[in-house]
Known about the structure:
Mean pLDDT: 87
Largest sheet: none
Organism: Paraburkholderia fungorum
Number of strands: 0
Distance between the termini: 26 Å
Order of helices and strands: HHHHHHHHH
Oligomer: single chain
Keywords: Membrane, Transmembrane, Transmembrane helix
Protein name: DUF1275 domain-containing protein
Amino acid sequence: MPINYLRGFTKPERSDETNRRLGRSLAFVAGAANAGGFLAVGQYTSHMSGIVSSLADNLALGELDVVVAGLSSLLSFLIGAATSAILINWGRRRDSHSQYAVPLLLEASLLLFFGLLGSNLETHRVLFVPATVCVLCYVMGLQNAMITKISKSEIRTTHVTGLVTDIGIELGKLFYWNVGATHRNAVRADREKLFLLGSLLLSFLMGGLTGAFGFRHLGFVATVPLAIILLTLAVVPIVDDMFAQRR
């Protein structure tokens, strides 16, 4: 694969095409990590709406241990998003080539750690399950904030509620019957946006299937290929910075 093609995924100079290419790749990784995480610990880790709803339910029921677990998940996602923002802004201040690649490198490292050590730690379920949930929530927050900043809030990859909503809106426009409408007030769908949203949804779905089958047949090591994907997306700008510092 050409170096310039790989560099385009996370280089500072952005275009709609590179954002979409990156978004589809990250949606695949998020779907796989989310599905694999559910099989590992019985909980989805990118669904903050569900976690907040669960917080409210269990708080009302007095299930304080579950409330603490939910708060930990929520805070982990929040801290992950904050970490991504800090790393990106730090990179921008230094005018580095890898300002968007560093969060992906951190995400890849955590997934690699999870994949290589997960099977060894699984016997300690009392600590393993909460730690795994927090790590995966942190990773999802890290990734979602990164693609949100890089695309100026146009693309999100770790959950599909917004995607499905926007797809529904565009489909409503597409099938709207413009009888008697003039060219000025006719309702028209943004077909390019609809294609992007559909491709992100499909990427998340394919990632989920891949993650579920991978974890079922390979166990925790199924996250290692996801880490390799992220490393591939991030490595060229990081190497560019290393060469720039040597000059």
